[in-house]
Amino acid sequence: MAIALADILNERQIALQLKPRRKTNALREMVDLFALNETVSQPNLFLGQVLAREDTSSTLAENGVAFPHARTDLVDRIALAIGRSRAGILWNADGDRAHLIFLIAVPQQLVNDYLIVVGTLARITKDEDRLNALLNGATPAEFIATLLDAPSL
Questions:
Q1: How many CB atoms are located within 10 Å of the residue 106 CB?
Q2: If you compute the radius of gyration of the chain from its CA atoms, what whole number of angstroms results?
């Protein structure tokens, strides 16, 4: 059975006001959400894996949305942490900024499920109205409701 977005959304793993302005620090803050919820077995090692992956190819997509991730043995199931920054996180040398970050921890064997999750999130955030609702949602619960209210594509 394919994974559903609702299966991996967790209000405690959403930071709607990321404080850092640089990618490494923002990702560290988001990995801390995994650590607090004991989602990833070795958070610092996972952060290193994400940063190494990001160094090979930027995960910043359209509209200031980034999908950093790592395939890892540090999780048993796909995990998602979400961060938002109104000012934007400096993401690359070109000065591009990420406003929404979907950090994904992927077990080595669940590549297809990962592709489903990223594809779903990418389709949702390409819709301008839905993207604006995500950028302006007041609470993690409202943010999740916006994601789950998206039509199946």
A1: 21
A2: 14
Model confidence over 57-73: pLDDT tens digits?
888 888 899 999 998 98
Per-residue confidence (pLDDT) for residue 103, from 0 to 100: 96
Eight-class DSSP state of 72: E
Beta strands in 1-153 (DSSP E): 14-15, 65-66, 69-72, 79-90, 97-107
> Among 40, 38, 41, 32, which Cα is nearest to 14's?
32
CA angle (114, 118, 119) in 5-degree steps: 115
Which residue, 72, 7, 82, is CA-closest to 41? 72
pTM over 0.85: yes
Q: How far apart are CA 75 and CA 105, in angstroms?
A: 7
How buried is residue 91: exposed, middle or buried, by Cβ count under 10 Å (0-12/13-18/19+)?
Answer: buried
Q: Walk me through the domains of the chain, giving residue ranges and CATH numbers.
A: 9-147 (3.40.930.10)
